[in-house]
Structure formats: structure tokens, C-alpha cells
Design a protein that fits this description.
The chain has 421 residues and is α+β, with helices and mostly antiparallel strands. It has two domains: 296 residues, Zn peptidases (Aminopeptidase, 3-Layer(aba) Sandwich); 114 residues, 2-Layer Sandwich (Alpha-Beta Plaits). It is built from eleven helices and 16 strands. The strands form three sheets. Strands 1, 2, 3, 4, 5, 6, 14, 15 and 16 form a nine-stranded mixed β-sheet that branches. Strands 7, 9, 10, 12 and 13 form a five-stranded antiparallel β-sheet that branches. β1 and β2 form a beta hairpin. α9 packs across α11. The longest helix has 23 residues. It is elongated, with a radius of gyration of 24 Å.
Amino acid sequence: MTEPARPPEELGALAQRLLDDLALVTDEPGRVTRAYLSPAHGRSIELVGGWMRERGLDARLDAVATLRGRRAADAPGRGRTLLLGSHIDTVVDAGKLDGCLGVAAAILALEEIDRRGERLPFAVEILAFGDEEGVRFPSPLSSSSAATGTYRRDWLVVKDRDGVPLERALRAFGCDPAKIDEAAIDPAGVLGFLELHIEQGPRLEHWGLPLGVVTSIAGQTRMGMTVVGMAGHAGTVPMELRRDAFAGLAEIALTVERIGRQGANDLVATIGRVAVLPGAGNTVPGRVEASLDVRAGVDASRLVALDRIRHEAERIAARRGLTIAFERHVDVPTVAMDGNLQNAFAAAVASLGLDVRRLPSGAGHDAMAMARAFPSAMLFVRSKAGISHNPLEWSDPLDLGLGVEAMIRTILDLAARERAP
């Protein structure tokens, strides 16, 4: 039976209710922590799988613990499938929305499409990925990588802090690592992948806009830096004779900040972790280990910044009698979102009477992995104060509802295109 469309305010309230319920599923009472293949991850699959089945979806778990809820096509078409979703794992002491909004919104969008009596000429599959964050194992985006057929087998041997290999954890969870190849989705049958996500940054709030269309996901390089000098007694080594590794890093850190500020294409550069050795209050630091994270919406800007940072850091180290070594851990190129799907999102946003603003994503997302095999696009929802990975993470329920409605209108727009001769 056809029913009138729910207004965005009501859709947002429904989304908030689902997100509040999911936030109660945690590995640590009192805060939201839901690691990949943990007991809380298992309970979240039961909860979200129940939501899917209540709405008529066929829900199943694949070999890497991605929950998949499928809605069959209503009418003959080209035999293709539209993919929706995001992740349901979290960081430690997380907020309620990161990743989880994309899954809850996809479920509500399909429910609302059915309420309105709309018919779709393609199947829709909601993917609730389990390992986007890479918190328990150093394997971020492994779930979505399996969907694209790009799963790295070396991930299976990595261990968590308790020494449990990923392969053993999968088996204990009821998954069969031997069937990971079967988790891959044939690109020939996929219309595209759509992900609704909070922005996790302040730009939409600054612009006064509830929604934004993502143009690309920033490329990123993560490195380790080790600065070595000479440890010595804090009271007996004269200042002019010191080879203070931490003082050298401090100068390098200001250089990193300056280069980041001077860069183009949303370049950002961050030193987020520092270990000072030997770490005694009365000893001149002889060794410092630090992280370096550089990201930009265009690869050229990131690579130029990295070259400048390395050159100037080596110059600073040499002047201070220090040595510096770099170790590259992650090097991911910028991923552009599909132009046609971007335009579909933009048309949906405009149809809501909202200004359309396009922006890059500085954070990585499952759409980054999905874009390796499928046309992919993201729609951002405004984040309060740009806060994320934090219990204070929050978006206005009205903004959530506008995001759900934009997803609905995008799906219906793609359905009309699919039916067109």
C-alpha cells in the first residue's frame, strides 16, 4: 500500500533512534568501542541483520564478516545491482555516527521507497562492512577490499595486541577465510556504490549547509621519522654542545606545519605521535620517534609536500648534528568519485531546495576501496564543530533526515535512468 512520504524531520528521528540503539552495542561499557570480529561486532551484526530482515531484506554474512542485506529488483531491467552502505566497526571511545549512519540510512531509504510504493528496476544490496577503521588489526578497509576482489592475503597473518592472527579471529567468528574470493562482487553487474557519511570536518558547518557532494577522497602518506642525536646529562652538557633529538624534531614539526599551510588542494600535514627516548627528565633526548601524516585532494600536492618536508628535515638535522631516517608505512593515491553519481547526488540535494557544494574528503572511507572496482560516490552530512572519532560527534537529526531523503531521491533518479531506453 502506498503511503505519503515521511518528512526529513521524521526520517532523521528514525535514523537517530537506530544509531542510539546501535551505540549501546559495545565492547566497553560506558563508551562506544566496537572492534572488528569482537563480541560487540557480533552483536551488532545480529541487531542490524534484524533491521534488514524486518524490512524484507535477505541478510547474510560473507567470508570477511560483512553483513549483506539484499532487496530483489521489482521489475525486469538490466539485471544490475546498486550497492549502498558503510561500516559498523568503530574506533576506541567513538561517536555514534561514523560509518553507522551510512548503514542505518541505507536501510531507512529502502524502507521508505517501499512505503511510497516505488518500484526499482535493479536489485539493491546494503553492505555493513566490519573492518574500515583497522583498530584491532592493521588491515583498514579489508572488508570493502574483499568486495572488490582486492583483499590482501598477507592481512590474514597480522595479529592483534593479544597475538591473535586475523585468520584465527575470522574462524572463531564463524567465517571461512578460504572463501574470501567468493566475497568479491562482479563489477559487470554493479550499477554503482553510494555511501552517506558524516563529514567529520567543519566545512559544511562553516558554509551553513547540511549536505555536500564529495569529489574525491584524499590521497595519504603515513611515515615514521626517527631522529637520532646523543643522550647526555641535562646538567652537564652545555647548550652549544648538545645534539638534542627532541629539539631537532621540534624545529622539524614547525617546518611540517609551515609546509602544510603553504600547500594547495586541501593539503594537510600532521605529526600526531612522538616518543622521546630515553625519556628521563634529567637527560638530553638522544632519540625521538615520530609519525608523519600528509594528505591532499590531488596527489601532486601531497608528493611535492613530502619532498619538501624530507629535504628541509634533513637540512635541519645536519645543522644540529643529528641524523634522520624515514620509513613509509602507507601510501594511498587520491581516489576520484564517479562524475555521474556525483551529479545524481547533486541533483537530489538541489531538489531539496539546498545549495549544492562539492568538497573533497580528507579522511579515508570504504568508498575509497569500492572505487577500485565500481563507480562510487559519497554524500556528506554536516558535523557539529567538525568533531569525529569522539563521543561528542553529533549531527542534527534534521540534517540526518535530509541525507536519507537525498539518498532516496538519488536511488529513484538512478531507477528512472535505468528504465530509460
